[in-house]
Design brief:
Helix content is about 50%, strand content about 15%. The chain is an alpha/beta fold and about 170 residues long. A 5-stranded parallel sheet has the order 2-1-3-4-5, with helices on both faces. Helix 1 packs parallel to helix 5.
Amino acid sequence: MPFVVIIMGSKSDWKVMQECIAILKKFEIPFEVHISSAHRTPERTKEIVLTSEKRGAAVFIGAAGMAAHLAGAIAAHTLKPVIAVPLAGGVLDGLDALLSSVQMPQAVPVATMSVGKAGAINAAFFTAQILSLLPQYPNLSQLLTKERQERAHQLEKDTQSIRNEI
């Protein structure tokens, strides 16, 4: 079964990336988690990517803050989809990570999500959308549709709740 590989730049990224993992679990998408740095352990990053790809990895998610070259380092070693989750940190509070993630050279694309929690959640949803194209995930499109409908319904309930307070 094709699976997802999440690589974080450090353990401090774990709290935010748990949001991504919660969505993957909800959709019953298999995943594995690694910590590796584009700068401190580039060979480890490369080995994780190559080994995971041989074992059937279908999507890679790279989460890092500050210089945030991790997703780009992952993309350098695979043709599978790579999703970047830039994380807040340092004096620029994630802007540096966002810019590092989106500034990729031609022909080495990385799909970059927003900074932080929203980006982690959207990385999981985007991963699910990608995997829904594979025959091994025949029900994923229906689950994604249901999730969107539930979220839309929740907005309607929230609207009514606020109106009741007025």
